[in-house]
Amino acid sequence: MLASGTGSTLRAVIEAAREESYGARVVGVITDVADAGALDIARSEGIPTAVVRLADFEDRDQWDAAIARTLATFDPELVLLAGFMRILGAPVLERFGGRILNTHPALLPAYPGAHGVRDALAGGAKITGCTVILVDAGVDTGPIVAQAAIEVLDDDNEDTLHARIKEVERGLVARTLGRLAREGWTVTGRSVRIGAAIPTTEESS
Ligand code: GAR
């Protein structure tokens, strides 16, 4: 799992994974921020951690390569970006592409980028929400796996709205990750279906 922030999403997945039937567990946490709350949560759970800060590398490519190398040491089946606030480059996508999930605090394709909550408010949205996507090379452009809607209240500010989104988002991420791990998934064009592939007419006849 990769995280830059407080780690409430990480905590939700850890809690869900306490159920034996969940089908997944967190094998490692990487942050790009040395004092990210996610690190404390992982350490207190005995989960291996690594800090890979962009500032410690000569350029973005070297940082990307270090993220890919560090991820590989954890040998994950799925990679979750849980509040990871940087774009991943080719070294990570080449190695883990197709099995990287991101969670975003807006109803994609509306309001992508680093300020999904702020932008939804500024855009006058009455409904926003959260989206789990499979990561591709773009910014929040990958195929949508799951979404949940949240009403924007007249007196909402960025903090109150984000807090309500996160309450729903934590559950959505934990449920979705568990289902993907247990049931697998197929991608057809931009459509993601959780579970075994449905046979086509020719295959089933
Ligand atoms: C979540 O709302 C997530 O959607 C958002 O950061 C928060 C992480 O919270 N991610 C992005 O905005 C990515 N563009 P957390 O640190 O408490 O898990």
TrEMBL record:
(6R)-10-formyltetrahydrofolate binds at residues 60, 85-88, 102. Residues 2-175 form the Formyl transferase N-terminal domain. The record marks 140 as: Raises pKa of active site His. The active site is at residue 104. It holds the Pfam family Formyl_trans_N. The keyword Metal-binding does not apply. Signal peptide: none annotated. Catalyzes the transfer of a formyl group from 10-formyltetrahydrofolate to 5-phospho-ribosyl-glycinamide (GAR), producing 5-phospho-ribosyl-N-formylglycinamide (FGAR) and tetrahydrofolate. Belongs to the GART family. This is Phosphoribosylglycinamide formyltransferase. It comes from Demequina sediminis. The lineage of its organism: Bacteria, Bacillati, Actinomycetota, Actinomycetes, Micrococcales.
